[in-house]
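User: For a teaching handout, I'd like to show students what a predicted protein-ligand complex looks like in token form. I'll give you the sequence and the SMILES for zinc ion. Please answer with just the structure.
Assistant: Understood, here is the input followed by the structure.
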Amino acid sequence: MRTIRSLTTVAPGILFAEGPASNWTVFHGRGHVELVDCGYPADRPLVEESIRATELDVEALKRIIVTHGHSDHLGAARAYSEGSGVEVLAAASELPNVRREVTEQVTVADLMPVALRRGTIPWAVAAIRAGGLGDVGVPSAQAITADVIALSTGHRLEVLPTPGHTSGHACFFEPDADVLITGDALVTGHALLNDAGELQQLPTFFHHDADGAEASARRLSLCDARWVLPGHGPALRL
Ligand SMILES: [Zn+2]
């Protein structure tokens, strides 16, 4: 059964959800909810559970901002967009991937060299079961047009372009609470990584451009944050 691993309030109105295999952040306030990422498609009930944990209802969800267009971050964004008119935003350079005009995502062929490594096959099976190969593209997704996104919840997010993992991957920094959302540019754990809890990069084969990912990770490590909320692994308090 899929369950949320942990829910952490990192600052007023900022709830971090560590999902079964990938994470999302719930911003809430002024009767509104906005998400950064939303897990796998199969995590939809858990996303809604995390919204209800803020004492708001799912109808309060106004917008989903994604770090990048992978299926374990896009989740049910398409269903929310088509069913309830929830706006979906991504960096302009990530839109082709989010809309599935191109696909920058690890394939079965990419996994062949590491298929025998411990954990690879169980991870791949779980990813497929969670909807990882499903049709998750969001044709209606729109581009982020500002350097700072003003959320309807009263928070603001500085947009940090961090290409490499995908062409238009973006991280987000909430300056009032010093919260850095790193998506897959830096993580603190993954089924295919050994050291849980440490800030680190995903294995190279997950990145569209490994050199770019390395450079982005190095730039991010200069960011002065109190909390790091990664795409995979637990929240890290610095
Ligand atoms: Zn990813």
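For the handout, you might add this sentence: The chain has one domain: 6-237.
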